[in-house]
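Aggregate trends can hide what the representation actually does to any particular protein. The sequence in question and its structure tokens are set out directly beneath this paragraph.
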Amino acid sequence: MFLFANILGIFVFIAIAALFSRDRKNIQWKSVGIVLALEILLAWFFTQFKAGQIAVQAAADGFNWLVSVATQGIAFALPEWLTSNNGGPNFVTSALLPILLVVPLFDILTYIGLLPWLIKWIGKGLAFITGQPKFEAFFSIEMMFLGNTEVLAVSKAQLDMMSARRNFTLAMMSMSCVTSAIIGSYTQMVPGKYVLTAIPLNILGAIIIATILNPTKVTPEEDVIVSVASDNGKKEPFFSFLGDSILGAGKLILIITATVIAFVSLAALINQLFSLTGLHWLTLENIFGVIMFPFAWLLGFNVQEAFQIAQYMGTKLVTNEFVVMGEVSKSIMAGKGLFANEHARIVLTVFLTSFANFGTLGMIIGCFKGLVSKEKNDYISARVPYMLLSGILVSLLSAATAGMFVW
């Protein structure tokens, strides 16, 4: 019965995306079916074999090395910031300041033509398999390890060329990634093998949900990869280009920081206003927990287990994944209580392994505000509910496909 509910959940989540689609008539169902089959195949591979987990870990280790290099610069200028959180990672040092190295590095790769070349050919391969435009296909791979702000920041030239609708597709997809720099922190709190399983599943899920929610036709003329060049066809002098890149990265960090603080504070303000009613159970976390209950049940749990899982899901959406991981870490790692059930361990871990929450909305909107025109940013900002819906549905779809093979 629970396995049947789990399988049914996959189709329900896709049906919800179709219900809210902005253009149901033009949904590429063949592409959706192919990517869904690939996601289910990968879920089976990652839950049953170690080879896939090793491959993902190797790629993650490569980016962790890059971030560790960025940490040396942070340590030189702001050493106390690296020890302010009991010596552990914090939002600024793990997600924001590395942008000052990552963005210029990828801009340099764009400047010399290597990144556009990789995007062109890898994008062609993925586009052939998934039916997606070349850049969107490659973007899904990039964001597997770079994180939402970094992957958008290194794509500024491409974002400028693309339509507002295609930019919105990338905004929705960005809700479902993680920054490789904090994967190590995740694996200290929840089962690492399930964290690494979640990452590629989220990428495929993001393609599926974005394709359904925001079908976009791209002509061959639009499906191109931009390169760095000035108006007269000549490249800007390298150090001038590099200086602009570094300054742009710094500006981006300030915009993201301000936006995230505002979004998180607004959520806290809403909870404080709810507390004035005297109903202590009335919080955004509990409201979203109630909303998430039927979907948690569809992940293969009885009523009592589903209610507990839904509460954790609601808390994650309003705060972030670190808060919930901190709450469940001891129980989930020891396999106690609800988490004596292996199915509960993989489902919740996969659901938590993404940046889909209110704070991320602020990060993405702030990022686009610093990267694209006001017209494009306004287009994206007017569709924020779609971004949150996309993040939730991708997390649910990934949890369902992974949970289907572990009981």
